Amino acid sequence: MSGEKKGRIFSGLQPTGNIHLGNYLGALRNWVTLQDDYDTVYCIVDLHAITVDYDPKHFLAERLGAAKVLIAAGIDPSRSLFYFQSQVPQHSELAWILGTMTPMGVLNRMTQFKDKTAKGIAANLGLFSYPVLMAADILLYRANLVPIGDDQRQHLEMTRDLAERFNNRFGDVFPIPDGYYPETSARVMSLTDPTAKMSKSDPNDRSRVLVLDSPDIIRKKIKSAVTDSDPEVRYDPEHKAGISNLLEIMAACTGQSIDALVAEYGSGDTADSKRSWPRPSSPSWRHFATPISNSTTPRSPA
Question: Quick check: is 197 catalytic?
């Protein structure tokens, strides 16, 4: 990797479930552009993925499928370090060391663990100590920056604290990583609950648009998206969360501004705007879906 770049960025993607539009617009699209200016380290975080229930028979295919999507989206292994987390044992080794330095009180305050178990996900040690492994992921490559969303801020603060604890004990080993907040990063919300982020773990398939969904399925999901009883099309996240979410998605996929879309559809109603949803094309996510869906079933590595 070039020493002339601004710094080193680390980020990872879980392979469980199909990658959805929120992943692409909120993260993957930015990952691709970051390769121009930073030393980038990207991985499929398959160790994180097994902290929740999973099907071992399908897990290999999901791992390789996620890697294919990232490469098809523009992650270039000749420009970025790109790998499976489980193939680098130092992730687990550093996580164990950091775990000996992590107070239980800190882990007890992690809200993501509480949120997941409140939704019925079985509590286990791996899920509880998830933030420690995440810290090891970041620190192992001495990353300076980590692209994160609001739900990861608490984990990053814990990573920074652990880096300082380690350095105080063993010397100046790890840089203290900062969050990277891109200027343009879409926050894509659920189609069935526009107050919550679009998520792989939502049991309702209609809540998310998958990057490998066909155009017909995409249109059906958009048309069934939750809006409100007021037919007016306007951008108002507080009072019209559903239609505002659709406007943000359309703006991110087409390159048009929200103001331009409101001007175009504002004279109609919400139903009209849903029926006019554009056919997915090159500015959106469908330009890389076909080669992935046509790929052969991956084989287990030797």
Answer: yes
